[in-house]
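Practice problem 4.
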């Protein structure tokens, strides 16, 4: 199964359906199921997310989802994201690629594993 490693709190925001897009500087043609892997907590803006009451699980695969699209973010989309949630989408994502994440399911038992860069494969045991 493909896996995308995402820094916290963003991984938990996706896993709990607060965040519908993950942003990267690179494009993917991959569409389909993925695991969401939570890496270390990013100190940037961490206090802004307290209202979501997230439980961070650093170093674990925490959810299963689907990448359904990859969109180059223009200024118009960037402004639309801020209207959806200015806390979750607080940065400027113009000229980044937005991976649309849908059908998210939290795992009952998170899987302890080291993350990797890019989309990577995890072999279930």
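Answer key:
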């Amino acid at each position: 199964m493909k896996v995308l490693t995402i820094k916290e709190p963003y991984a938990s925001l996706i896993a709990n359906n607060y965040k519908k897009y993950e942003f990267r500087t690179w494009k993917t043609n991959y569409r389909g199921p993925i695991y969401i892997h939570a890496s270390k907590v990013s100190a940037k803006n961490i206090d802004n997310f307290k209202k979501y009451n997230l439980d961070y699980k650093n170093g674990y695969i925490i959810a299963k989802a689907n990448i359904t699209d990859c969109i180059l973010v223009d200024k118009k989309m960037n402004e639309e994201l801020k209207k959806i949630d200015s806390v979750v989408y607080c940065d400027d994502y113009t000229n980044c690629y937005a991976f649309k994440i849908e059908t998210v399911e939290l795992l009952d038992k998170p899987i302890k594993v080291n993350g990797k860069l890019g989309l990577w494969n995890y072999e279930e045991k």
